Amino acid sequence: MAERMLKFTTIERRTPEKRDAEARDRDFLEIYADFIDAKATEQASRCSQCGVPFCQTHCPLHNNIPDWLRMTASGRLEEAYGLSQATNNMPEICGRICPQDRLCEGNCVIEQSGHGTVTIGAVERYLSDRAWEEGWVKPLAVQAERGQSVGVVGAGPAGLAAAEQLREQGYAVTVYDRHDRAGGLLIYGIPGFKLEKHVVERRTQRLADGGVEFKLGFEVGRDATLPQLRQRHDAVLLANGVYGARDLEVPGGGSKGVVAALDYLIASNRIGLGDTVPAYDSGELNAAGKDVVVIGGGDTAMDCVRTAVRQGATSVTCLYRRDKENMPGSMREVANAEEEGVVFEWLAAPRALLGDAEAVTAVRAVRMRLGPPDSSGRRAPEPVDGSEFDLPSQLVIKALGFDPEDLPNTLGAEDLGVSRWGTVKIDRRTQAANLDGVFAAGDVARGASLVVWAIRDGRDAAVSIQAYLQTKAEAPALVAAE
């Protein structure tokens, strides 16, 4: 091992080649190239094989990163992929969109010692893409049919991960989703320049080929209520995410030209998929030829500003009330956006939107400073008197985060327990809701979070659902024996 690993002192960190901003800012193709075999092997060899691997402990899925890096460095690529996918249902997706700088790579020991982190995400993507090319990704290995069924509400990462785990255990699984394609926000929320759609589609096709049934264009609460699904299935998993956009509570916030981030991104992704979107064609959800201001500092805001650049916006500005060091989004995405011409107004917040009800014309903003910590422990932004300024804008995109919908009402289940934030109230040990046989995973229970956490929740929920169904299957036999 010593010959193949621990080379971080002699080999510099290298990331895959990235297309120049001028070559990428008018298309929605992914911006990073794949590693070639030699480069993936070389970069994997930089791993220090820590006794306590912080990369692994800070990964929500606890992926066995040091071991599959060692296998990659040794040229044992199929084995490396096998170990990678053993704890992750979508490694090629996480390799593309996880904020590694805040998770595995951000906690890499050699990064802390000044040698530059191992490029874990790029190697993970390389292994998974190679696995698809070489046929190492096998069909679902389904055990004997158990005669019990599970309904999964939501075809996003939490629902898909749970569906795969449960189907392999022999349960009949039906996934219900309001959209006309499976994948949830992986298809409709994340732009193609971060995640091309064929990468998601081959995963969902693998599930369909393995016997998972998809009922698309199916809205729970409209086409069937949660109580009706409970009658239809032995267990139900709620994994329908959070879609309620937070409002911009300033004067003019309801003007035409002020749109929610998710509406904007869904329209753009649908256009990329070849759909007709009237609101895009009319210009309502199209940045072409407009001054665009995106309000927010998370990864969704970064998706919006970079999408606006590609749509041909005249100017794109991101307005965020804290400084760069305190923004929640990935620093890698900020750097990509800056390369593509996005202007960041740090420590600035909207005070009013100018124009009239029929058209926004500008954002009136105010400079902020960071005061004492708030209840979350972060320094709270405070306005600076007399610091107002105007930003011309004909399209304002609200990327302020997401809240759950009114779940008891929308799902037709008034007795469904919810938290004070509106998420499904669950037992955190089992992810069981207050209704018998109902579980919840991902953002609908956790609140808006990362894809990797949704996958983790889906896998954990599958374990609890299986335990519940085994108990349920054994109950008649115990009654008969008595």
TrEMBL record:
Its cofactor is [4Fe-4S] cluster. The keyword Disulfide bond does not apply. Residues 150-458 form the FAD/NAD(P)-binding domain. SUPFAM superfamilies: alpha-helical ferredoxin, Nucleotide-binding domain. It holds the Pfam family Fer4_20. The keyword Oxidoreductase applies. Gene3D superfamilies: Alpha-helical ferredoxin, FAD/NAD(P)-binding domain. Residues 26-135 form the Dihydroprymidine dehydrogenase domain. Keywords: 4Fe-4S, Iron, Iron-sulfur, Metal-binding, NADP, Oxidoreductase. GO terms for molecular function: 4 iron, 4 sulfur cluster binding; metal ion binding; oxidoreductase activity. It comes from the Bacteria. Coiled coil: none annotated. This is Dihydropyrimidine dehydrogenase. It comes from Caulobacter mirabilis.
